[in-house]
Amino acid sequence: MEKVKKLGEFDVVPSEVTFNEMHSNLNIDKIRKLSDFLLEIPYERINVDDEVRRIADVLRKTGIIPLDKRQNDRLHIGYALVSGANILLSMNFKHLVNVQTIMVVKGIATIEWYASIEIIHPIVPLGKGDE
């Protein structure tokens, strides 16, 4: 398997929540893999601000991710929209990578004048197809 070393092809923007979740994870193997990956690539770390919180609140009010314990999921989406990301990678099929959430987030992006965003699982190939 080829290492991901396509610097400049994608801008990686992990959020403050990503780092908090990473450091609170009890799976040392997962933490090591993510840490190693972040050491290999350039990235811009962003922090919570009022706009990210506002978008998270809009998501809560839609009822799509209503529970308080899912606040991090709403913040991930808020970060992605506010930072101008085109893709939000997640392995959370229950709350993020599902048709209902994806459609609501696309609607919010349109209404709030943010760029459209795709919410996908990291296993989805990001290649350019057969060449």
Can you put this structure into words, describing what you see?
47% of the residues lie in helices and 5% in strands. 20% of the residues are buried. Residues 1-7 have low confidence and may be disordered. It contains 5 helices and 2 strands; from the N terminus they run H-H-H-H-E-H-E. It has one domain (16-120). Helix 3 crosses helix 4 (71-83). The protein has 131 residues and is mostly helical. Strands 1-2 form a two-stranded parallel ribbon.
Mean pLDDT: 81
Low-confidence regions:
1-7
Which shape, going by the Cα principal axes?
A: globular
| Residues in helix, % | 40-55%
Structural class: mainly alpha
What fraction of residues sit in β-strands? Answer: under 5%
Number of strands: 2
Q: Note the total helix count.
A: 5
What descriptive keywords fit this protein?
5 helices; single chain; globular; two-stranded parallel sheet; mainly alpha; 131 residues; 2 strands
List the helices and strands and how they pair.
Blueprint (H helix, E strand, L loop, with lengths): L15 H9 L3 H13 L9 H13 L8 H13 L3 E3 L9 H13 L6 E3 L11
Parallel strand pairs: 1-2
Helix pairs in contact: 3-4
Describe this structure in a few short sentences.
It is built from five helices and two strands. With 131 residues, it is mainly α. Helix 3 crosses helix 4 (71-83).
